């Protein structure tokens, strides 16, 4: 049985849902929940990669820009260069994976702090995106690139394939982190990398794998983004680094590494999504939604700190 | 003097770092079922010797034999594969992970069959059961093996590290200053634990600066000095002051009476 404190984010999400269903009768409907899922789909996917990295006591500021680059590569290859759409998607995924690998290699081999490395690659990815796209939006996308935005019906509720993919990614991450040796080693890296190394774990390879995998996940997020917006937008993803960190922190994962659960991140992303959606339904201006997100983050971290000090 | 075949033996180990010779033809013998303390002043080559024996460094010259067979260790993993386990002074555990997870860290057991092979599914039940057995064997009284290591005292944490080494060592357990970070009571607990490891038949190499601990627990004491083995003494026959005198060079080993040597 996990300690009750690990249910904190879940309880907060439930309370928020109860509160908003009293405030607006439109809140509590399958259609609205499907909408919330679509709204958190992209940042939710990115936050999986962010969680893996934060569990190793790292941080990734470049995630949103890597995703934007991936989405531009996919769309421009397919539209402007007339490449087979599936191959274009593969190229986008490859570019994102490569950037993740670059982060991991710089952090592991040159021993630079993750904050600095990803601050650098954030700017590099952003600049390449702007240069390559000439700051132009790519539109007129072929079907495979937008397929994940299509919906199917569960009862009366239309659900996009993209949200199913995101939830599937969470399931895979949950399984790997909880039930396999490489997953447990990610926790060991964040807990005590020296102990992990002394116990015969190849910590360098492990670090690089985590960042590379995160890059691949940003690539999937790029595809989700493209399918949701229907265009390749060079200015996308600019707040996704902080938004994904918000989701991770709200989900109860420690920024010091080694502690946390991946499903907490999903709940963290949903908390942000539910608040934005609920406040919008109540007619609250979006700037107040940001204000409340900020307060939530500080509340979450404070609760975490206090409960830890007690234990 | 050495009668039984040593479990771990080294002859003429040499290790140079530039102009500094850390090991200058060091010999070493660990006998079956004993606790051998290794002491030496700073710069005596004590830690270089231990690193060579545990695979953390490769000596320039000399030979290491395990159960009489020559071995070459290029990494701690090589030594570990041969059944030599090391306990480190700075509590090499992952605090937020459970005792069972720490015991099997890096050596996790997978479920048998397809689930384990293809999906990498861990056999948590078996790891937990084996952890309970190992901890019981060494009489480490901890209630639940599912609790995080950070909930334990320093001595109990070192207990986990010792149990981990004892569980996987087939030949030798090396303990590098296992009590350095601990208080008096906790140290005694770990010393008892080391005795129990020996009593189960595993020879132990104990590196320590703490002379009372060394005299309390060691069967023989290896004194390192100037990159060599100065002497091996019998703690039941020699005074602590004479041991320290040999270690620091105030007394030459030849000045000791023969019955003090081991």
Gross CATH architecture of chain A? Orthogonal Bundle
Summarize the biggest pleated sheet of chain B.
6 strands, mixed
Shape of chain B: globular
**Overall tally of domains of chain A:** 1
Count of DSSP-assigned helices of chain A = 13
Order of helices and strands of chain B: EEEHEEHEHHHHEHEHEEH
Structure, described:
- The complex is a heterodimer of chains A (311) and B (262).
- Chain A is an all-alpha fold and 311 residues long.
- Chain A has a single domain (29-301), classed as ABC transporter involved in vitamin B12 uptake, BtuC.
- Chain A has 13 helices and 2 strands, in the order H-H-H-H-H-H-E-E-H-H-H-H-H-H-H.
- Chain A has a two-stranded antiparallel ribbon.
- Chain A is globular, with a radius of gyration of 19 Å.
- The model of chain A has no long low-confidence stretch (mean pLDDT 93).
- The N and C termini of chain B lie close together (7 Å).
- Chain B folds into 2 domains: 8-91 and 153-260, P-loop containing nucleotide triphosphate hydrolases (Rossmann fold); 97-147, no CATH class.
- Chain B is of the alpha/beta class and 262 residues long.
- Chain B has helices at residues 46-54, 76-81, 99-103, 114-119, 124-137, 154-168, 184-199, 211-217, 240-248; strands at residues 8-17, 20-30, 35-40, 61-66, 69-71, 84-87, 172-176, 204-207, 220-225, 228-233.
- Classes of the chains: A mainly alpha (311), B alpha/beta (262).
- The A-B interface holds A 175-176, 179-182, 184-185, 187-188, 191-192, 194-196, 198-201, 258-259 and B 76-77, 80, 86, 88, 90, 92-97, 101, 105-108, 110, 119-122.
């Amino acid at each position: 049985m996990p300690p009750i404190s690990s249910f904190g984010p879940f309880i907060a999400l439930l309370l928020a849902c109860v509160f908003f269903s009293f405030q607006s009768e439109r809140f509590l409907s399958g259609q609205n929940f499907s909408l919330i899922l679509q709204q958190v789909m992209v940042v939710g996917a990115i936050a999986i990669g962010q969680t893996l990295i934060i569990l190793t006591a790292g941080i990734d500021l470049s995630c949103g820009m890597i995703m934007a680059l991936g989405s531009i590569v996919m769309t421009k290859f397919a539209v402007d260069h007339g490449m087979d759409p599936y191959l274009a998607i593969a190229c986008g995924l490859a570019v994102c994976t490569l950037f993740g690998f670059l982060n991991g290699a710089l952090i592991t081999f040159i021993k630079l702090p993750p904050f600095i490395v990803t601050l650098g690659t954030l700017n590099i990815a952003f600049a390449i995106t702007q240069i390559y796209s000439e700051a132009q939006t790519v539109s007129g996308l072929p079907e495979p690139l937008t397929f994940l935005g299509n919906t199917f019906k569960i009862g009366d509720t239309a659900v996009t394939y993209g949200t199913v993919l995101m939830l599937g990614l969470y399931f895979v991450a949950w399984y790997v982190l909880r039930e396999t040796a490489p997953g447990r080693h990610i926790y060991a890296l964040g807990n005590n990398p020296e102990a992990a190394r002394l116990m015969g774990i190849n910590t360098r390879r492990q670090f690089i794998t985590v960042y590379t995998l995160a890059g691949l996940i940003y690539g999937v997020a790029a595809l989700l983004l493209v399918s949701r917006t229907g265009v390749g937008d060079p200015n996308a993803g600019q707040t996704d680094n902080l938004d994904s960190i918000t989701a991770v922190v709200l989900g109860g994962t420690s920024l010091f590494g080694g502690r946390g659960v991946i499903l907490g991140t999903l709940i963290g992303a949903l908390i942000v999504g539910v608040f934005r959606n609920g406040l919008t339904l109540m007619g609250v201006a979006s700037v107040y939604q940001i204000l409340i997100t900020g307060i939530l983050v500080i509340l979450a971290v404070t609760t975490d700190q206090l409960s830890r000090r007690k234990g | 003097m050495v009668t039984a075949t040593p479990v771990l033996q080294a002859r003429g180990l040499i290790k140079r770092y530039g102009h500094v010779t850390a090991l200058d033809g060091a010999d070493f013998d660990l006998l079956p079922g004993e606790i051998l303390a290794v002491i030496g002043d700073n710069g005596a080559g004590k830690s270089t010797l231990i690193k060579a024996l545990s695979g953390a460094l490769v000596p320039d010259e000399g030979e290491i034999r395990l159960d009489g067979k020559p071995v070459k260790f290029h990494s701690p993993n090589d030594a570990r594969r041969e059944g030599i386990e090391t306990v480190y002074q700075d509590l090499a555990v992952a605090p937020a992970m459970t005792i069972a997870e720490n015991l099997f860290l890096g050596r996790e057991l997978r479920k048998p069959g397809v689930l384990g092979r293809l999906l990498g599914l861990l056999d948590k039940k078996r790891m937990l059961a084996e952890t309970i057995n190992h901890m019981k064997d060494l009489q480490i009284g901890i209630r639940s093996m599912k609790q995080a290591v950070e909930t334990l005292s320093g001595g109990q944490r070192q207990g986990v590290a010792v149990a981990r080494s004892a569980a996987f060592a087939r030949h030798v357990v090396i303990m590098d200053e296992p009590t350095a970070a601990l208080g008096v009571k906790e140290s005694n607990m770990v010393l008892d634990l080391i005795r129990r490891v020996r009593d189960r038949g595993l020879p132990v190499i104990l590196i320590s600066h703490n002379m009372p601990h060394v005299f309390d627990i060691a069967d023989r004491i290896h004194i390192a000095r100037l990159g060599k083995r100065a002497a091996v003494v019998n703690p039941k026959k020699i005074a602590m002051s004479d041991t320290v005198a040999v270690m620091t060079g105030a007394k030459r080993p030849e000045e000791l009476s023969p019955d003090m040597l081991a």
